[in-house]
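Box 4.2: Ligand-aware structure prediction
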Amino acid sequence: MATINVNGERREVQAPGDTPLLYVLRNDLHLVGPQFGCGLAQCGACSVLIDGKEIRSCITALSDVTPNQEITTLEGLPARWAKQKGLSAEEAKTTLHPVQQAWIEEQTPQCGFCQNGMIIKATELLESTPNPSLQQIKEAYTTSGVSPNLCRCGTYAAIIEAVQHAATLMAKGR
Ligand code: FES
Ligand code: FES
């Protein structure tokens, strides 16, 4: 048994230590935002944040995560934003993270399969770099992680626009 901290809650899981964190999140905790794409850390579909840093949960073993580390999945982004903004529990229930809001307003996804990783990457970027340049956005998706974030539908231009829109929303505190 292992204890992990997911989206602000301590969760006990029975899986063996060498189980990929992705399987634990999806199969044991029913958090299906992270997707199984390549399983080899090459696409980014499975990304989550650990202590604010994007990691590939398909190659991260359950035993590699300590109970003190804060895992945030796509599902936990609204609460993450609410906590950062000091919103009440009631407000948090009806709040989307600005990155998610921007993705909706820009109608970014096509099939949607890769978009979990794209949103997680945008969140990591904007928390450290609130007003990124075009170059910084491109680098975030191509050279800053284990490997580039891949989209087989080719939504890259829409993703850049969504990140820029999210930066504007975050600056407004929405
Ligand atoms: S499924 Fe993890 S990087 Fe592709
Ligand atoms: S939207 Fe289809 S893979 Fe990216």
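In the box above, the bound molecule is FE2/S2 (inorganic) cluster. The CA atoms of residues 1 and 119 lie 30 Å apart.
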